[in-house]
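Summary for the steering committee. The consortium agreed at its last meeting that each partner would contribute one worked example illustrating the joint modelling workflow. Our contribution is presented below. We chose a case with several input lines so that the handling of multiple components could be demonstrated. No manual editing was applied between input and output; the record is shown as generated.
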Amino acid sequence: MAATVRRKPKGAYHHPDLEGALTAAAVRTIRERGVDALTLRDIGAQLGVSRTAIYRHFKDKSALLAQVALEGFRMFRHALTSAADEARARAADPIEEMGVAYVGFALENQSHYRTMFGDAFECAEEYPGLAAEGGAAFDVLLGAITEEQAVSGIGAGFDPLELAHIFWAGVHGIATLAMAGQLGPGGKGKPEQLCRLQARILRAGLRAGLNPAPGTASDAR
Amino acid sequence: MAATVRRKPKGAYHHPDLEGALTAAAVRTIRERGVDALTLRDIGAQLGVSRTAIYRHFKDKSALLAQVALEGFRMFRHALTSAADEARARAADPIEEMGVAYVGFALENQSHYRTMFGDAFECAEEYPGLAAEGGAAFDVLLGAITEEQAVSGIGAGFDPLELAHIFWAGVHGIATLAMAGQLGPGGKGKPEQLCRLQARILRAGLRAGLNPAPGTASDAR
DNA sequence: ACCTGAACACCGTTCAAGT
DNA sequence: ACCTGAACACCGTTCAAGT
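What follows is the complete predicted structure of the assembly.
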């Protein structure tokens, strides 16, 4: 760590860490003016740097966005992990608390979240680190579910991967709808409340088990 | 209906219904090459029309996208309504079938769905018709939930609006994650299966009722 | 009325040139 | 090594001009 001291080159740098400054400026711009307003020229101007200087640090604009997404996934995974750990420490439901942390992260870091699950998400194969970090974040949720199955037996008869997908879809849906202002004017408290309610209904449903719906036609086997 | 016969003007029209052709071309382009590839110049070229001809029919590019979204919401509401009606006719769960129809619509009409819940969704206040159509589609879901509360008593103790938000978030989450290819390589059958499982777990949870989670700390009152 | 072509103010990206 | 300025091929949008 302390062994590698970056020797400052002779040329005058505008920024000691231009790469970090570029991603930070990107995050700030997205937050303040939206993704569409993100312009390499504007970022360069913000940093007092030529508009082509970015190409020294990133292959192109989407690589910069991928870096924002990667940074987001790292923060994201940490938020989920510590929420689950803290819940376990006070004997709360780790899955419910992870859901609250999920939605809270999305709402507090909308720039990162939008970038994580926006265009960069679609073409993740170009940035293998992205898919890996996203998978690691998902594994935190998957781990909590398998643990719950083993410890309390809740949902033990279900495929944990399917349960994880359902929980993910639920919190992702709440987060995106809340960001779009579709969950009413409740403000920030509403999404968390909704998130808790969702987790508890799902938990109760898993505990109770599924009796076949009254008129299920196609999938009796 | 048949009373208003549009008299063809003397000037030579490239398209009898340029407005409809423009939105159709937009939908097709989004489906085939993504929203970012949607270009007024390209659409004009596709239709053999000047790239500024569109301004005779739409205020700007976002108005064209709003039209695509509006068209999408109308088809969407119809799909939801008929799914619920059909479910009632054969005594199936209307909510589960609406969820399947929701996800199915999203996957079969990704151009429309992405536009409906994309940028146009954010600035819906500029296009009041959009918000109205979106609200009408949501009301189909809300109505099915209040009906279920009244008829079968399931979830009767809950705020129907909160339940509707939770169901919406669930199916919206499944739809968007499926579109992003995040629900595994299962193909088209997987999202529907997940959707049914989610609806049944939620239903079972509402039927069973919520006993307080083991270590709920903050919200005892 | 409807459409066109040129023009304007923007983009991302490339590249030879500077230090 | 790192950064710059000019240049290129694109955008959306405006507007005077055509029929």
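Chain B has two domains: 13-58, 62-220. Residues 13-58 of chain B form a domain with the Arc Repressor Mutant, subunit A fold (CATH 1.10.10.60).
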